[in-house]
Design a protein that fits this description.
The complex is a heterodimer. By secondary structure, chain A is an alpha/beta fold. Chain A contains eight helices and 15 strands. Chain A folds into two domains: 8-226, Rossmann fold (3-Layer(aba) Sandwich), CATH 3.40.50; 230-293. Chain A has helices spanning 48-55, 96-106, 111-124, 140-152, 170-185, 221-227, 273-283, 298-309, and strands at residues 8-19, 22-33, 37-41, 63-68, 71-72, 81-84, 158-162, 189-194, 206-211, 214-220, 232-239, 248-250, 255-257, 260-267, 286-293. In chain A, helix 2 (96-106) crosses helix 3. Chain B is of the alpha/beta class. In chain B, the strands form two sheets. Chain B has a four-stranded mixed beta sheet with strand order 2-1-3-4. A two-stranded antiparallel ribbon of chain B has the order 5-6. Chain B is elongated, with a radius of gyration of 31 Å. The chains are: A alpha/beta, B alpha/beta. The interface between A and B is medium-sized, with 30 and 21 residues.
Chain lengths: 322, 443
């Protein structure tokens, strides 16, 4: 992962979008670095799709601007962007090959160029025999593969995937993940938009959290995690553990079974993990078998961040990890 | 522009390759041919050889039985009613006519017996025969010769001539009306069939969820226009196929079922059955056929003008309404929701066609007709129904065409505004208020 300053492929600057009776985007700014996977995260209805539709030039912003590789976004960029919408589908009565050719030509590819690329992709997914099949004769999983090929056929520099895993079965989801990682290694920049944050956090280099039309947090995933370290440690071991020190607070989720214990301990007042370890060993009553920091998930960070700004916030049930 | 072309191409090819298109293309001319051929065929087949037994107790037909006519022949049976009834039951007569003893001043008491009830036409024919016979008897009594009477009958046809600045032109109202209806009906049908195809196509893209994939590559307006133009191509192809195939089939049909052949067939039939005056009829049929051809030749219709205008209004009307149908398709989620929007859009079309007889063909240059042929909502049909009658001033035609062009540019703009919002709107019942808001949404 490059640490040097990477030029952004996309800069969103103070973008606003107003619909008849609600504000979809309220001054959102963010930067997508070139060659990275960028997670655009937030609950349903936060404004992710509105932002993506502006980036893909389906709609225009009411205010602010978007730069693509430094230039104001314009129709000449359409061929460099690939978009897999959340609402997606194919013409049912059209043959796979014809359909891919049509969609590629709409992106500006020549017929000859598109034909060779279609062949390459069908071979990569090992589905060459499908080219002459009607889409309606394919299974859902097969259609998803065709859909993905249609998105990447024109070798976009920026790939935007809106809820990419929704509707994908686990096998195709894995295939999709591998392809996405491969595309990144070839230099494609990818924007992931999803409300299921746990599904993409391991893949993302950068994230931006959006809630109620506003960006609430963004940055490198590692930086965000560091900023939101929980100071909670999980300790596993044998013996009768009693924590009485004021700097260490045992949390409720702890488990004890006979001699075994697994407890969560929060550090207060600048205490360091080594202090806790020393205290546990110094008491002499217990044998420590495992000691690890509880790393907050992006989802937990999101909820914490939102609670800081909106104390009354109740997360939607489907934005919680299963 | 190249993208509109790509989209139009896809719309065209996928539709033209459909089985339903091929079937319609073949069926259309067959139906047309059937419309022409069926009455002829039916005429040759129906009512063949109905035999009416006559029990002539009153002596109305003493001299001779009535001549066979329209495939009805008469045969004499015993004048005694019970005997006649018995004979009727045994033999395969279609009806038994009983003529009672008559008072010529007040003839009454005729009876017709039949097995299954008489058809309307057979009953009318028998009535006619009896009336004729009674009249003939009375004439004879009054000393008037039938032949003399026949020479006094008059048969007059009016030749209509339209008197205009260009001088006298003989015209045929009947043929003009026919051409007017055919043109008007074709445009009406075309707008409906293909307008609804646009609507379905838009709805299909919306429910298939492919629309967002496509409009991330092209502007919604390009997608809509591509669809409208592609489907127009399908319509023109269908029309061309119909015309070509209709002519082919019609010439084949008229080749085999020409009036001469029908007549000949009839002669053979009738001769086999009763044998009588069929040859006269055959001649008449031939005369009728010649009259139609004559009328088509003599009717002074500016064929080039009508044909050119037909193509213009055919396309213009389609574009005007097609865009609106596209907008409807974009605003709804399912076919059942289309009703409330279809009504106001199709109303002017249906109205034009409904009033066409009262207003357009009977008074093609009246005030209402002139206005209807100007307003783009009604002009494609109304103008096409006026033109075959002639006498439409050039300035009216020019204004009507300009208004239609302005009209379809307007509806396409309007539809484009609704379309770009509608296609991304799911699961929402749309009202007119909502639609009007969409018009003013920014990009």
């Amino acid at each position: 992962m490059p640490f040097c300053a990477v030029k952004p492929i996309l800069q969103v600057q103070d973008v606003r979008k107003q619909y008849a009776n609600h504000t979809a985007l309220d001054g959102v700014s963010l930067e997508v670095p070139e060659g990275s996977i960028f997670g655009l995260l937030g609950p349903n209805g936060a404004g992710k799709t509105s932002l993506i539709r502006i980036i893909t030039q389906i709609t225009g912003p009411d205010g602010g601007q978007i730069l693509f590789r430094g230039e104001p976004l314009n129709p000449s960029h359409i061929g460099q962007i690939g978009y897999l919408p959340e609402e997606r589908g194919l013409y049912k009565k059209m043959k796979v090959g014809e359909q891919l050719l049509y969609l590629a030509q709409l992106k500006g590819l020549s017929k000859a160029d598109a034909t060779t690329k279609i062949k390459k992709w069908l071979e990569r997914f090992d589905i060459k025999t499908w080219a002459d099949k009607n889409v309606e004769d394919l299974s859902k999983g097969m259609q998803q593969k065709v859909q993905f090929i249609a998105t990447v056929l024109h070798d976009p520099a920026l790939l935007i995937l809106d809820e990419p895993f929704s509707g994908f079965d686990p096998i195709n989801a894995n295939l999709l993940k591998d392809e996405i990682l491969r595309l990144r290694s070839e230099g494609t920049s990818i924007i992931f938009s999803t409300h299921r944050m746990e599904s993409v956090e391991e893949m993302c280099d950068h994230i931006a959290l959006i809630n109620r039309s506003q960006k609430v947090l963004d940055g490198r995933v590692s930086d965000v995690r560091n900023a939101y370290r929980s100071q909670i440690y999980e300790v596993e071991g044998r013996g009768h553990l009693m924590i009485t020190h004021p700097d260490f607070e045992e949390l409720e989720q702890s488990k004890r079974e006979n001699e075994h214990f697994r407890v969560l301990v929060k550090l207060h007042a600048g205490a360091k993990p080594n202090d806790l370890l020393r205290y546990l060993i110094g008491a002499g009553q217990v044998e420590v078998q495992a000691f690890r920091e509880q790393i907050p998930s992006i989802n937990e960070i999101f909820i914490r961040r939102v609670r800081e700004t909106h104390p009354d916030y109740v997360p939607e049930t489907d934005s919680l990890p299963a | 522009m190249s993208k509109i072309w790509l989209i139009a191409q896809r719309e065209y090819l996928t539709r033209v390759r459909k089985k339903s298109f091929i079937i319609m293309s073949l069926l259309g001319p067959l139906i047309t041919a059937a419309i022409f051929a069926v009455p002829v065929i039916i005429a040759t087949m129906s009512d063949s050889g109905k035999v009416v037994a006559v029990a002539d107790a009153g002596g109305l037909f003493t001299d001779k039985l009535p001549e066979a006519k329209d495939d009805i022949s008469f045969t004499r049976v015993s004048a005694d009613l019970p005997t006649a009834k018995a004979a009727f039951k045994k033999a395969k007569y279609d009806a038994l006519l009983y003529v009672p003893k008559l008072d010529m001043a007040n003839p009454n008491g005729f009876q017709v017996f039949s097995r299954k009830g008489l058809g309307m036409s057979l009953q009318r024919d028998i009535e006619q025969t009896v009336e004729n016979a009674v009249e003939a008897q009375r004439l004879k009594k009054a000393g008037i010769d039938q032949a003399l009477l026949n020479t006094m009958k008059a048969d007059v046809d009016l030749q209509t001539i339209s008197l205009s600045d260009d001088g006298e032109r003989s015209s045929s109202t009947g043929v003009s009306t026919g051409v007017a209806y055919v043109c008007g009906f074709l445009i009406y049908m075309f707008i409906f069939i293909y307008g609804i195809q646009i609507m379905r196509g838009v709805m299909e893209e919306k429910t298939n969820r492919i629309v967002e994939v496509v409009i991330s590559s092209v502007k919604p307006f390009e997608l809509m226009m591509g669809k409208v133009l592609g489907i127009a191509g399908v319509g023109f192809t269908q029309l061309a196929l119909w015309i070509v195939l209709s002519f082919g089939i019609m010439s084949a049909v008229t080749g085999s079922i020409s009036p001469e052949k029908i007549a000949q067939k009839r002669v053979e039939q009738v001769n086999a059955a009763a044998g009588s005056t069929a040859t006269v009829q055959a001649k008449e049929t031939r005369k009728e056929g010649n009259e139609i051809i004559q009328a088509l030749k003599s009717a002074d219709i500016n064929v080039a003008l009508v044909a050119a205008c037909f193509l213009f209004y055919f396309l213009g009307g389609y574009l005007f309404y097609g865009a609106l149908f596209g907008a409807i398709g974009s605003a709804v989620d399912s076919e059942t929701d289309t009703q409330q929007f279809m009504m106001p859009v199709t109303m002017p079309l249906v109205l034009t066609f409904v009033v066409s007889q009262a207003v357009l063909t009977t008074n093609p240059n009246g005030q209402v007709a002139v206005w209807m042929s100007m307003i783009p909502f009604t002009s494609p049909i109304a103008m096409m129904m006026r033109l075959p009658f002639g006498g439409v001033p050039m300035w009216q035609l020019a204004v009507s065409m300009l208004l239609l062009i302005a009209g379809f540019l307007g509806t396409i703009w309007l539809a484009g505004r609704i379309y770009r919002v509608g296609i991304l709107m799911y699961g929402k019942k749309v009202t007119y208020g909502e639609l009007s808001k969409w018009l003013f949404y920014k990009g």
